[in-house]
């Protein structure tokens, strides 16, 4: 027996966390019956699972892509406002892959997309503390006190953040440029941390995710991960 949300993730429908939302929304059926209770289990060998009336089947063929997400592109699979989605940039890829976590509309940089639900789940789970590194430009000159607060952890409305690695790369008349590494995946976390210490973000770019680096990819470009990179990525989250 297997949890329904894990089965959906393994089938490449969505990440395990997103699969839970799909179940709660009533979009998943098992043997013709709509399931809205989380934690429901199925027998993959006997039960028939459908998502939006279409049969769901697991696959052993996983694909992994690294995309340089441009500014003003959304990382959701559907957008009511009709804005460009990251999946719109994956020309010629027939396999249904989905983003691992999110970069907000005004953030660019490294974004992983895959149909490997278990890997996506672990990469985003705070238990595995997978590092994510950003280049951040903030308003004002960051002083030692603000830097120390970011490094030790900042109290936000959803609790104290984990310690972050923060290095000042450059300062100008009215800005500071930072390299910032966090090991959590809270919504808009870097922006909220910087705002909390009095230095709103001007620009934000993710350049590393675990062992992967953005490299020379230009905005909108993507590439398939190499076997060695996949192994290192799995190692980073103990898979």
Please, could you describe this protein's structure?
The structure is a single chain. This protein has helices spanning 4-10, 16-24, 117-124, 144-152, 189-196, 227-236; strands at residues 2-3, 28-30, 33-34, 41-42, 49-51, 54-55, 64-69, 98-99, 108-114, 132-139, 155-156, 159-160, 165-171, 175-182, 201-209, 212-213, 222-224. With 239 residues, the chain is an alpha+beta fold. It folds into three domains: 2-55, RNA-binding S4 domain (Structural Genomics Hypothetical 15.5 Kd Protein In mrcA-pckA Intergenic Region, Chain A, Roll); 64-126 and 211-236, Pseudouridine synthase I, catalytic domain, N-terminal subdomain (Alpha-Beta Plaits); 131-209, Alpha-L RNA-binding motif (Alpha-Beta Plaits).
